[in-house]
Amino acid sequence: MKVDNFIHKKWMIRAIRLASLGRGFTSPNPLVGAVILDKRGKLISEGFHQRAGLPHAEAMAFNNLKVDPYGGTLYVNLEPCCHRGKTPPCVDRIISSGIKKVFVSIKDPDSRVAGKGISLLKDAGIEVNLGLCKNEALELNKSFIFKNLTSSSYGVLKWAMSIDGRLGLKNGESKWITTVKSRSLVHKLRADFDAIVIGGNTLRKDDPLLTTRGLKKIEPLRVVFTRTLDLPLKAELWDTKLSKTLVVYDSSTANEGNLKKIPKNVEIEKVNSDNPKLLSKILAKKGCNKVLWECGPELATSAVKAGCIQEFITFLAPKILGGDNGMNPFSDFEFKSMDEVINLNLQEIKPLFRDIYLRSVMKEKTF
Predict the structure, then answer these.
(1) Which residues are catalytic?
(2) Among 13, 126, 128, 318, which one is least packed by beta carbons within 10 Å?
(3) Which CATH number fits domain 147-362: 3.30.450.20, 3.30.930.10, 3.40.50.1370, 3.40.430.10?
(4) Which residues pair with 43 in a beta bridge?
(5) pLDDT tens track of the chain, all 367 residues?
(6) Euclidean distance between the first and the last CA atom of the chain, given in angstroms as a whole number
(7) Which residues of 192-214 are buried (b: 16+ CB within 10 A; e: fewer)?
């Protein structure tokens, strides 16, 4: 690698690391970091997008400036915006600053930008270099990109199971398969998501809280997807002081008389079938870039079939539960040959005291 390329990559990696500080807080916006150097190549300012509605990364970097950036260089992991939303266009600020060179990792997939920001910078006489640290930038904002390209939220399915592939005993007992350390990591993982989905059966059986246990100031939206509306009168999710709750039901099968049993503080929406893709699109419209599915076997299988799941997180415990009727992570996909099975790419594996953490993605590229 040439010295110049090494230096440019160094600054872009810094911008990407800054961007990651906004994890779990920026939706529906992307994760963006910005670094500004003066014309001699000295770092003079930096910033990142902290939360939706607050200044974008470039604006924060310019606001933090103590010296004139004229003739300098800007590194930003996503194409600067050129539209006015809750904040002014970043492109205007860059042009007026006198910056002469801009390095951008990837174009913004948002149709309001999609290359227009780069064109405006070039038209203003600014040298624009596109593609630096492209893979790292794509990975960082994969959920934002996926939502913009598909109008659906990026889905991650999570489950814990024994080494023989069981979620619990045949009598339904499942607390606890994994260790306290693994369960604490789940709370931490939830902080990276905008919503958490379960089915009605999980609500009835487990009465989960579905929070980060205070690790995130604004907790993820808690979502129940139900075909029947046969939901308990009392549930942790009905207490919305900690986090909002949304119930989405299939109007073609649900007993709508049960709606009166759901507390008024819970948001309710209906869809015309039990296709989980409809739920994924509703959540995308609500600004959820990334959704964690913590549902049971039936909904998990339907979500995978419908293309709602792009990533899988598994906690594997060194325990044998056995039993012909033991609970499995999925119901029947009805595969008839090994050529039909779902193949995953293992991205990460690490020990957690006695358990093992696995993260996998679908083999087919989603963008």
Answers:
(1) 58
(2) 318
(3) 3.40.430.10
(4) 37
(5) 465 788 999 999 999 999 999 999 999 999 999 999 999 999 999 999 999 889 999 999 999 998 999 999 999 999 998 876 667 788 899 999 999 999 999 999 987 878 888 999 999 999 999 999 999 999 999 999 999 999 999 999 999 999 999 998 888 788 889 999 999 999 999 999 999 999 999 999 999 999 998 888 889 999 999 999 999 999 999 999 989 999 999 999 999 999 999 999 999 999 999 999 999 999 999 999 999 999 999 999 999 999 999 999 999 999 998 877 668 899 988 899 998 899 999 999 999 889 999 999 998 654 4
(6) 28
(7) bbbbbbbbbbbbeebeebbbbee
Q: What is the CATH number of domain 3-140?
A: 3.40.140.10
Residue written as tokens 């009465």? 207
DSSP secondary structure string, 304-347? Answer: HHTT--SEEEEEEES-----TT-B-SS------STTSSPPEEEE
**Domain parsing of the chain, residue ranges:** 3-140, 147-362
* Structure tokens belonging to residue 241: 């002081």
Distance from C-alpha of 11 to C-alpha of 83, rounded to nearest angstrom: 26
